[in-house]
Amino acid sequence: MRIKQNIFYLLVGVIALIEVAIFWLSLQLDRPLFIQVAVIIGILLLYFTHKNVEKGFEDERTQFIAQKAAMSTLWVFWVIFFVISLGSIIIGLNRPFSIRPPSFPGSHSPPPDIEFPVPLVGPESFNRLGFFQLGMLCLMIFLYIGFRMYYGRKYGASDGDEE
Amino acid sequence: MKNKIKVFRAMHDMTQEDLAKAIGVTRQTILAIEKGKYIPSLDLAFRISRHFKVNIEEVFTYED
User: A121, A123, B38, B57 - which has most CB atoms within 10 Å?
Assistant: First the structure.
């Protein structure tokens, strides 16, 4: 059965609302697995429904623009993600590792007893990581839309030029 | 890549919309090809020239 594009968007909205409700439930019950499984099921549902959607007219130019936008998004996102990851690694490596300095044979003074602060990985770290990753995903979507518009203009023409 | 699509369209008294429908692309694609903003694939170039019943070289000219 073929469904119309608008019906599909409505379905996306309904699934998104259900996901928000499950997110809340997951938070209340402290069960992250609920929302994780729900998102995977939701995406699979949309994937199989999308196959039956009556698609708008697409030709080789629109496919070419989508391909160029996807590749550019991938490249820019890769560079941004790499730079941020490098920065995080530098911050992480700059902290003490809680390892005692070695005592060498023949040395008279034992290494001082220094207490190193042990970095704690608490729920707030996961929270920050989750928001950071969501932010990166949003950035990816904005990058893709931006590149679609850019390449659409580069390989396209304005609408009012009928001759 | 230069092309004479506009000339052939005029000869056949066709609008961009007519040609787009006939070869199965959008009007924007015909417009972009005519303006030289988009270089069509070999398949599309053949479809356009066959529609006008001429050789591909008569419609499209390669320039260095």
Answer: B38
